[in-house]
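Quick board copy: two proteins, each given as sequence then tokens.
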Amino acid sequence: MQLKIYNEIPSGFETIDLDYIHTLIQGPCLFHLKGERDDALFISTLLHGNETTSFSVLQQLVKKYRTEKLPRDLIILVGNTEAAEKGRRQLPGQVDFNRIWAEGDTPMHHFADEVIEYAKKQNLFANIDIHNNTGMNPYYGCVNVMDSHFLQLASLFSKKIVYFTEPHEVQSNAFAKLCPSVTIEAGRSGDIEGIDVTYNFVEKVLHLKSFDDAFDFNNVGVFHTIARIRIHPEANVDFDNNDNTSSDISFIQDLETKNFSYLPTGYHLGYLKNPELLRVYDDFGVDVTHHYIKLIKSQLITNQMFIPSMFTKNIDVMKSDCLGYVMEKLNPEHFL
């Protein structure tokens, strides 16, 4: 797949419904828009077709800067427009567009390589990859490098920052080698407040002159993802918290409200019939289930205190990706 690069946004972009986006833009592709400064802001949209905040934000930006000069160059990576038309993360047979930014030999991996090579030739100021999640989470930014410029960039969006190294195949991690880079988790798709918060954040970065080398780490809360909770793709799941359920796993009803809160040791998460259907893996792929989860009869109980993120009640997402992540909170001395 050859990289397509355009220097202007097509007419109608500001108003088109995502149901028809592939008729206007046949992604994936790049748009490189010139601004007053050549230190470019790189933004990704629709790497997951059902995560729409990024597109809504870019529609507002394009509408504004049709008649105004951009403060700096803006490079837009448009991702999976085919899946976006169907409201899907990705279509059957497609690779995940946010898992192609490392080694691989598919046409989309080669496309990602071309994007990176193009980006290397630019004067990049920052990279923003905008995503949504399906569970109830606060707005937060994710970084792959513990660096003051990266943390400052993330803090302009939220004082909650997550540091992760896995999955390593994501776009933000690839671009972390080129410039300060962040993944934005802007709540659920279509959330108006999330769109507004993200739009204001992008505007701040567009106008930001430089990053502060003396950034105060004490002004943010930094969390570190240390494990991922996986659900077997053939497991039957419900949220009835019922030990007599016909499902394999019956979670508590308010599971997703636990995100970014401390779960104490011995906390009841539901019922599990077969322990092999729910496993916890650390960043090295090692099964660490027993560190975090135990079964008392069929009760699913936390085995130590931890902080979850991205707990979701979307069964398709939990099976194709994960139920959520295990985090720890870092103190400033960890990274000063």
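And the next:
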Amino acid sequence: MKFSIWPSFDRPWTELLELARYAERTGWHALWSADHFMPQTDDNTVGNGPALECWSVLAGIAAAVPRIRLTSMVSPLTIHHPVVLAKRATTVDHISNGRVVLGIGAGWQMNEHGAYGFELPAAGERVTRFAEGVEVIHRLLHQPRTDLAGSYYILTNAPFEPKPIQEVLPILVGTGSPRMMRITARWADEWNTWGDPAQVRERTTLFAKACEREGRDMASVRRSAQAMVFLTDNDAARDRLREIAPAGRSLVGAPSELIDLIGEYVQQGVHEFAVPDFTLGGSAEERMHALERIHAEVLSAF
């Protein structure tokens, strides 16, 4: 099992760079960068707050920090044209000497699409367009020239050079829905899903069925997961957190309890687990302290 850090998209550049350097020094596997332009709101109104652009962040870290892998989590194809996104990811792969994971999704956040004028079709059409977009990316990364006459994208004898540094630049798809799982099984190298061990187990059963339907050996697909982590030694605080933490997406407990929970991901064959920093404190110092403690008291067991 490998462990990665997922900072919120509203962190300032100085904190992100220090976080990446910390991850490098202490043996974390990767840094994930969320691809959003504003915070989500409960009523889908425009969100206020800073948001650095995902791929610029990954390029900067690629140049400054030499070892950790760099993952977009995830770039929506409703906002990014697949050709431009494939070129952007390949460029960062060259800057990083082959450390990029291209995480993509169908798009979902209504307020950023509405505010900036990006089209967000109904779910069925959105997934259909995504299926075509991920095929475009896969073909560009693997073929000398690409021809595709689709409903949304048309490529004519399209070159794509240079190819990535990696022999295979991994395409990651984050999803929990059955149709998206089938698209993932068809085109992707990695499947990602949110969830505690019980939810991941349930979704993995669905993903196995999707792979079977697509004729894909599930063992050939890398799997990653994430959940919000709440580390506490206080019994009263732990009980209170279990009542209010997002159900199915949270790990709550003392170090020994978290070790047991993460061990369940290992038993399920999950290859990578990311720790979001969303719940780790209100300041950079608090978040770093929490990550250091999680690393020392929980993740070191693996």
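Board note added afterward: The domain at 2-301 is CATH 3.20.20.30 (TIM Barrel).
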